[in-house]
Amino acid sequence: MILRSRGLARRTRDEHDHFLKLGRLWRAAAEPVSVFRPRAVLHDQLGKPSCLPQSYAQGIEPITGKRVSAVRWHEGARTLQGMANIADVGTRSAFVLGWADRHGWADYTPGEDARAEPFDTDGLVYDSIGEAMAASRRAHRLLLHQVIDTTASVDAIRRQIVAALNEPDTFVPLEGGTRGDFDHLEPNAIETGKNRGGDDHGHAELACGYDAKRDALLVKGSWGNWTWCTLPDGTIAQGCYWFALPAVRGLWAADAIRVVP
């Protein structure tokens, strides 16, 4: 049995205020309609608490066409937090963004999610100078980070998220707590916030679509093929589930991250 780590720490008040100063979402959709973004390769973080970098990696991969190392990103964010040698520490978005701005991101290494924890808690983010230089060339590519105001009305949130999903080279990570039977969601069920909310067990995922008929987000996690849902065209979205739009108000944070291609 795989221990499904969550690995997300809630933003501090200072971080929240800082992000708000950067500005809320720059625009809103005039009329929210269904939109579905290309989905990245199915991720599985296994027992590593790397869910926040996993959500960022899954957002970047369809834009760049290349797999991203979420584990290395997680290790770098932990380093900025001063917790490089603590295996199960939860990362915060301020440090995930900070690491990418300073150091970029590394290429995915097959098997990195399953390798021994000591490999990722040795304080060394890269194995070689060449790997570090390749990653640094991606620094400063997170061009724009803006807050989607999850305290606004449901209609305002809907319009903000749909607008972000329609923006080119932009992805929408979601952060929040989990509770109850979140690990055991039924396929095709619409999560209404009963299991995806609360103040504990922080977990991050990627919003990769919106279905106007269901009024629900298509949300993609990083626990592999743990659940699935059927898209309007009849195809199966592995590793995804439906998240009722009104329940987004219970999340800790939602952001729009634009990447320079």
Structure explained in plain terms:
The chain is of the alpha+beta class and 261 residues long. The protein has one domain (13-259): Cysteine proteinases (Cathepsin B, Chain A). It is 27% helix and 19% strand. The chain is built from 7 helices and 10 strands. It has helices at residues 13-22, 51-64, 70-80, 93-103, 117-120, 129-136, 154-166, and strands spanning 35-36, 142-148, 170-176, 190-191, 203-211, 216-220, 228-230, 236-238, 240-244, 253-259. Strands 1, 2, 3, 4, 5, 6, 9 and 10 form an 8-stranded mixed sheet that branches. Helix 2 crosses helix 3 (70-80) and helix 3 packs across helix 4. The chain is globular.
List the helices and strands and how they pair.
Blueprint: H1 13-22, E1 35-36, H2 51-64, H3 70-80, H4 93-103, H5 117-120, H6 129-136, E2 142-148, H7 154-166, E3 170-176, E4 190-191, E5 203-211, E6 216-220, E7 228-230, E8 236-238, E9 240-244, E10 253-259
Parallel strand pairs: 4-9
Antiparallel strand pairs: 1-5, 2-10, 3-5, 3-10, 5-6, 6-9, 7-8
Helix pairs in contact: 2-3, 3-4
CATH architecture: Alpha-Beta Complex
Number of strands: 10
Q: Between the first and last Cα atoms, what is the distance in angstroms?
A: 39 Å
Helix proportion range: 25-40%
**Average pLDDT figure:** 87
**Uncertain residue ranges:** none
β-sheet strand percentage: 15-25%
Spatial shape: globular
